[in-house]
Amino acid sequence: MPEPLMRYLIWPLVKFLVAFLIVQVIVAAMNYIERRLLGLMQARLGPNRVGNEVFEKITPRSLHRFIPGGLLQIIADPIKFILKEDIVPSSSEKVAYFLGPMLPLIPAFLVFCLIPYGPPPTFVVTHVNVGLLLILALTSTGVYGIILGGWASNNKYSLMGGLRSAAQMVSYEVPFGLSIVGVLMLCGSFDLVRIINYQADHIWNLFPQLIAAFIFLVAMNAENNRTPFDLPEAESELVAGYHTEYSAMKFAFFMLAEYSSMIVNCCLMVSLFFGGWTLAINGYGLTTGVLRGWGLAGGILGAVIFISKVMLFMLMYIWFRATFPRFRFDQLMDLGWKWMIPLALANIAVTAVVVLLGLQFNFQGEVVLSIAGAAIIAFTLFLLLRPRAKVIHARRVSEA
Amino acid sequence: MFDVHEMEVNFGPQHPSTHGVLRVILKIDGERIVDAKPIIGYLHRGTEKLFENMSYPMCIPHTDRMDYVASATNNLGFVETVEKLMGITKQIPKRAQLMRVMLSELQRLSSHLLWLATHAIDIGAMTPFFYCFREREQILDLFEEYCGARLTLNCMRIGGMPEDLPPGWLDDVEAFVDKFDAAIDEYESLLTNNRIWKKRTVGIGVISPEEAIDWGITGPPLRGSGVEWDLRRAQPYECYPELQFEIPIGKNGDTYDRYLVRMEEMRQSNWILKQCIPLVKATPAGDIKAKISRVVRPPEGEVYHSIESPKGELGYYIIADGKTQNAYRCHVRPPSFVNLQALPAMAKGHLVSDLVALIGTIDIVLGEVDR
Amino acid sequence: MHVEYQKPRWSDKFLLLDMLEGLKTTLRELFKPKVTIRYPEERMEPANRFRGMFKFSFDRCIACKLCALACPIDIIYIDVHDEQREIDGKMKKLKVLDRYDIDVKRCMFCALCEEACPTKPKSIWLTTKTYELASYDRKDLYFNMQQLEYWEGRPEYAGLPADEPEPKQIEGGMP
To answer: Would you call A324 and B353 a contact, using CB atoms and an 8 Å cutoff?
Structure first.
C-alpha cells in the first residue's frame, strides 16, 4: 500500500474508529453513572438491579460486594431505545423532523478526530495546527438540529425549547470563544498538542487563567444545555423542551449528540486548562517527552490520564445537576451578555497587560498571574472549609 | 410588521408542574405572559354534597381526601366545627387537645416539606425534593404508628381522639424533632443563599398586603406579604394559647419571602412539638374522649369555624336541622381555592418560567380546590 | 416577627461561596447512608396499628350490622336470618349470618367498621399488616365471608395480632 494512503487515510481512520468506540462506551456508561451518582447524592440508590444475576453467576462470590448493582443498565437502555415505538406526530414537518436528530450527530462525532488523546503521533488522530478553531467551528453547528427538531415537531413547548436553545447556544458561543483567548496568548498557538506541552513545561493554565477557566466552565454548561442552564429541556416548564415529540432512536440520537458534545467540551477543558495527558509542573513529572520515552506503554498511560481527567469533569456535570436550580431565560441571557462577555474581555486585557509588562520589565507575567489564581483558589477553599457557626443560615429576627 | 403575536398555550391539566390537574390557559407574547386563566374542576368529587348524605362521623374520612397532603388538619377543622355546633368544645380532654395539636403540627411539617420539595423541583433544584421526602417519610411513619394510615389519616373523632398514643410514640417524635432543625439547615444550604434561587424568587409574584386581603388570601402567602394573621393566634383553638410560637411574616410579599416564611414556620412548628411532648406526658393516659353519646345529632343551628391549615384558613360551614344525623348543608372554605384566585394577577407580565414558581409558591392542592 | 436573611458578604458573593456551599452539601450527602430500600427483597414492617387487608371472624360476629352502618361508603353487605335453636334446653332466637361481603376495591381503609364492632376482641379488623392488595381483575377484590376469614390465595402475614391490648401503658406522668 502506498505510504501516503496509509499515513493520511487508513491510520487516521483506524484511530478515529478506536477513539469513537471508546467515546461511545463512555457515553453509554455516562447514562448509568449519571443516574447512579445522582441517586447517591440524593439519599437513594439509583438503578441497581439490571444484570445483578448475570454478574453473580459469572464472577466468584468474593467479588460480589465490589460489583456495583445495575451495571447492565448500560446495555438495557440502548436496547430499550431501539425497541420502542418510533412515534411521528402526524402534523409534523416530516423532513425537518427526521433531520433534527441527525444533524447534531455529525459535528459531534467529527470533532473526535481533532482531539489529542495522548502523546503524538500515535494518540492524535489528525494533527491540525488550528485544531482549536476547527473544534469551535464544528461544535457550534450542533444547534441547528435542536432548532430544526423543535420547530418541526409542531408543538408549542418544543418550539419554545428550540427557540430558547438557539438563543442560548449562540449567546454562549461568544464567552466560550473569548475565554480561550487568554490561553492562546500565553501559549501562542492554536494547536492543542502545543498548548498541552506548554502547560507541562510551565503550569496548568488553570492558575494563570483562573477566570477564563471559570467562564469556560459556565459556557460549557450552557453550551450543552446542562443544569443550571438546562432551559431548552426544562422539564417543569416545557415538559421536555425540544425533544418532547421525539421517541425511540430519534430521542436517543439527541441524547447521544448531547453527551458526545459534553465529552468534547470536557476534553477541551482538560486540554486547555488541566494539562491534557500530562501530569507535570515546570517540566518535572510525566511530560510528553517522558511518556514518549516509554513507548506505547507511556502513550497508553497518557491516554488513561487524559480520560480520567475527562471523566472527572463529566462527574462534575452531574454534581452540578444535583445541586443547582435552573436559571430563567432572560437571566441566562443577562448572565451571558452582561457578565460573562465583559469578564472574558477583562481577563484578556489583564492577561495582555501583565504579559506585556513582564516582557518590558523582565519578569515572568505568567508567574504573577499564577500566584494570583492560586491565592484566589486557596482563599475560597479556606472560606468554604473553615469551621464556623452556620453563617449561611444565620437569621436576623426583628420585631414586627 | 411590529404587531404583537400572541400564542395560546394550554398549561396542564397534564403538565409536570401543575401539582395535579390544574389547567392554565396562557396567552403568551414570546415568553411573557399576557393573560393566565386557571381552569379548575378536573378533580371534583362532590364532597360537599356527600356530606349531606352521611352522618357526621362518616364525613371524617372524606375530609381526608380534600387536602390529601394535610389530612390531619382537615379532620381537625371538621371535628371542631361539629363540636362547636354541639357546644362541647370545652369538654375535650387536655390530652386529646394536645394530641390534636401535635398531629396537626406534624401535618404542617409534612405539608410544608412536600411544598418545598415540589417548589424546588419546579425551579430546577432536584435534590431538595429527595431530602424533603426523606424527612417526610419519617413523619408519615409517626402517623402510621399512631393511627395506622400514612396519608389519609382519619385520625380524629367528634369529641376526642379514636385511640390513645401507642407506647413509645412520644419518644419517636422527640427523636425526630431533635434532628429536624438540622435537616432544615440542610435544605437551606442548598437554596436560601443560592444566587440562582434568589434570582428565580426575589421580586416574583409580588402581592401587597392590601391586595392580599382583597383577594382573601390566607396562610403563608398572606404572611409573606407582611400581614400578621395566623388563626392559631387570632382565633385560638385547642390549646394553642398555652403554647409559645412566633408568627413569621415577610416584607416584600414576593416568592422568596413566602419561601422564608414557610421555612420559618417549619422551625416554629418544630418548637411547638418540642413543647407539646412534656405536656402530653403530664396528662393521664386514656383520657382522650369527651363523654358524649355515640350518635352525633347536633341541635338545630348553623356554625362557621375555621382553623389554620398548612395552606391557610380552612373553614367549615355546617347547617344542622336538629332532626337527622346528617348535615343539612356543609360548605368548605378551602385555602387553596381562594389563594389560587390570585394566580392570574400574579402571573401577568412574568415569564413562563415564573408561572411554575408561582404555582409552587401558592401551594395548591387540587383535591382541595375542586373538592 | 420579620424573616430576613443576612446579606452575603462581598467576598462570599464574589467567590461564589453560596454555590459552593450547596455543592458541599450534595457531596457530603454522597457518603451518607441511603434511606431507600430495595423493595421486593427488603420490606418494611408496618406499624402495629397499620390498616391493611380485612380479617373476619365468623365465630365472634354477632350479626349486629353496626359495621355496615358505620361504613361511609356502604361496601359491607350483610344478610342475616333468624333461627330458633336449642341452647341449654331452651329455644332461643338467634341471628345467623348468611352473607358478609366486603367490596374491597371501593374501600378507603378508614377502619370505622373496626371501631364500630362491639365484640371483644373485634370480629372485623384491619390490623393484619398486609399491604400488597393489587389485583389484575376487579372481581378479585370482592371478598365474601369465607375469603375474608381464610384469605385464599393471599399472602398471609405470619404474626397476626390477636387484638390490640387496651391502652394500659402510661406515657410517664400519672400512674
So the answer is: no
d(Cα A258, Cα A105) in Å, to the nearest integer? 9
Q: Which residue has the cell 457531596?
A: C27
pLDDT on residue A145: 83
**Phi–psi pair at B302, nearest 5 degrees:** -135, 155
Q: How many C-beta neighbours within 10 Å does residue C52 have?
A: 18
Q: What is the ipTM of this complex?
A: 0.82
**For residues C145 and C58, is the Cβ–Cβ distance under 8 A?**
yes
Quick one: pLDDT at residue B139?
A: 92
C174 has a pLDDT exceeding 60: no
Average pLDDT over residues A252-265: 86
- Per-residue confidence (pLDDT) for residue B2, from 0 to 100: 59
pLDDT at C168 over 50: no
Torsion of CA B114, B120, B125, B129, to 10 degrees: 0
* Separation between Cα atoms, residue B305 and residue B150, nearest integer Å: 26
**Spatial distance between the Cα atoms of B338 and A150, rounded to a whole number of angstroms:** 37
User: Does residue C170 carry a pLDDT above 60?
Assistant: no
Domains of chain B, start order: 42-368 (1.10.645.10)
For chain C, the distance separating the N- and C-terminal CA atoms, rounded to the nearest angstrom, is 41
Residue A391, pLDDT score:
42
Q: Which residues contact C61 (CB under 8 A, 6 or more apart)?
A: C97, C100, C119, C123, C124
The answer to whether the CB atoms of A41 and C30 lie below 8 A apart is yes
Which H/E stretch holds residue B164?
none
Amino acid at B206: V
- Residue A141 to residue B190: CA distance in whole angstroms: 35
What is each CA distance from A29 to A56, A80, A312, A315, B129, in whole angstroms? Answer: 20, 15, 14, 12, 26
Q: Angle A231-A232-A237 (CA atoms, 0-180°, nearest 5)? A: 65
Provide the pLDDT for residue A157: 83
A–C: how many Cβ contacts below 8 A?
70
What's the pTM? 0.86
* Burial letters B213-228, b for 16+ CB under 10 A, else e: eebbbbbbbbbbbbbb
Which CB contacts under 8 angstroms, 24+ apart, belong to A306-312? Answer: A306/A117, A306/A118, A306/A267, A306/A270, A306/A276, A306/A277, A307/A22, A307/A26, A307/A117, A309/A270, A309/A274, A309/A276, A310/A26, A310/A263, A310/A266, A310/A267, A310/A270, A311/A26
Which residues of A lie closer than 8 Å to C, measured between beta carbons?
Answer: 37, 40-45, 48-49, 319-320, 322-324, 376, 379-380, 383-384, 391-400
CB A331 within 8 A of CB B199: yes
Residue C117 grid cell? 364492632
Q: What is the mean pLDDT of chain C?
A: 77
* Extents of the domains making up chain A: 87-385
A95 vs A253: CA distance, rounded Å: 16
Q: How far is A65 from chain C (nearest CA, A)?
A: 16
Closest approach of B214 to chain A, Cα-based (Å): 22
Between CA C18 and CA A172 the distance in angstroms is: 23
- Confirm if A258 and A240 have CB atoms less than 8 A apart: no
Kindly state the cell numbers that stand for B49: 354534597
Q: Where are the beta strands (DSSP E) in chain C?
A: 2-5, 55-56, 76-87, 90-103, 124-125, 142-143
Across the interface, of B31, B124, B264, the residue whose CB is closest to A326 is: B124
Quick: pLDDT tens for A271-283: 888 888 888 887 7
Cα A246 to chain centroid, rounded: 24
B307 half-sphere exposure, CB direction, 13 A CA radius:
25
Q: How confident is the model at residue C152, as a pLDDT?
A: 57
Q: Is the pLDDT of residue A67 over 80?
A: no
| Span B46-87, pLDDT tens digits | 888 888 888 888 888 989 888 888 899 999 999 999 988 888
